[in-house]
């Protein structure tokens, strides 16, 4: 596997039933969770799929956005595009900050082999949804920190053979 100079961190809010979305929507609103996402990703590079980007509708301030798309004609002002996770990782090498993967499910799955860390907000709900966080081998990951919040628990995981603690 190709090595990259950046950390690749998967950042997701995941319900108890594995749901991360229902179509293009997040099936919950939890006070403070989006502020935590902003604090974690500010100053870094956000990688997301086109559908996730279009559900947000704009690049998020204070972050470089790379949109993963199979459509070479797709573009949006203020964002970079990549045809693969490997292309995005190569682009990230020349940009400030770490690569923070923000969804959707196909992007998480494609980035999982390169991930050095995961930050999972484990939401205490089991909503209806058709988009799920990909399965991963829990034996490859070590919990380095947890934070309890009213409606979710944030868990910081590092991959043992690639570990750089993201909770610092």
UniProtKB/TrEMBL annotation:
- Give the pathway listed in the UniProt entry for this protein: Cofactor biosynthesis; tetrahydrofolate biosynthesis; 5,6,7,8-tetrahydrofolate from 7,8-dihydrofolate: step 1/1
Instruction: State the reactions this protein catalyses.
Output: (6S)-5,6,7,8-tetrahydrofolate + NADP(+) = 7,8-dihydrofolate + NADPH + H(+)
One GO molecular function term? NADP binding
- A GO BP term, please? tetrahydrofolate biosynthetic process
- The residue ranges of the DHFR domain are 7-168
Q: Which UniProt keywords apply?
A: NADP, One-carbon metabolism, Oxidoreductase
Q: Which top-rank group of organisms is this from?
A: Bacteria
- Fetch the Pfam families from UniProt: DHFR_1
The record's listing under PANTHER family reads:
DIHYDROFOLATE REDUCTASE (PTHR48069:SF3)
Q: What is this protein called?
A: Dihydrofolate reductase
Species whose genome carries this gene: Nocardioides baekrokdamisoli
Q: What is the lineage of its organism?
A: Bacteria, Bacillati, Actinomycetota, Actinomycetes, Propionibacteriales
């Amino acid at each position: 596997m190709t090595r990259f100079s950046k950390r690749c961190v998967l950042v997701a809010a995941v319900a108890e039933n594995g749901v991360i979305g229902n179509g293009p929507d997040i099936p919950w609103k939890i006070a403070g969770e989006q502020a935590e996402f902003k604090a974690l990703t500010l100053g870094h590079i956000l990688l997301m799929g086109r559908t996730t980007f279009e559900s947000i509708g704009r690049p998020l301030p204070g972050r470089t956005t790379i949109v993963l798309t199979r459509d070479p004609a797709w573009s949006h002002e203020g964002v970079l595009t990549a045809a693969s996770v490997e292309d995005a990782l190569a682009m990230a090498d020349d940009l400030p900050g770490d690569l923070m993967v923000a969804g959707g499910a196909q992007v998480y799955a494609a980035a999982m082999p390169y991930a050095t860390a995961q930050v999972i907000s484990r939401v205490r709900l089991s909503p209806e949804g058709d988009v799920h966080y990909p399965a991963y081998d829990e034996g490859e990951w070590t919990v380095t920190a947890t934070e309890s919040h009213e409606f979710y628990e944030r868990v910081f995981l590092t991959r043992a053979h690639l570990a750089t603690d993201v909770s610092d």
